[in-house]
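This part of the workshop introduces the protein records we will be handling. A record pairs a protein's sequence with a compact description of its fold. As an example, a complete record with its sequence and its structure tokens follows.

_____
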Amino acid sequence: DDNFQNPGMLWAEIGEELWEKTEGEAGKACASCHNGPETMKGVAVSYPKYVAEKKNLENLEQRINRCRTENMKAKPWKYESKELLGMTVFVRNQSLGMPINVKVDGDYAPFFEKGKAFYEQRRGQLDLELVDDGVILYREINEHGGRRCTLCQL
């Protein structure tokens, strides 16, 4: 893998520039609390996380903005802004190659089950199905109302 061929690395460069940038009323940068970016290794692979005060999940972008508003006393970055995209990619890049480590039990369980139900639900014009009994299938209704697998044509 060549990072120079990955266009996402342009975002990481923006995030790297912002890491040391002092902002907000508290006069802090990300580096003020987190020191070097290597302290972010393993962080991105654990998101989303449950936030008890909100009784909801929080993604990495929301956590970055919460750090900005609560710790830096700075304005949150807009979603899809170059700043938030850059910092998100920069933080995620610190965990490059690490396995995803998201919890699916405890407070996380209702969110996981809702996502699982959405994933397994038939939908769309062709009544496509993503999974059946744990096996990934792509099915559609044929002209006689029967089902056939579009992968094996059975």
Q: What stands out?
A: The chain has five helices and six strands.
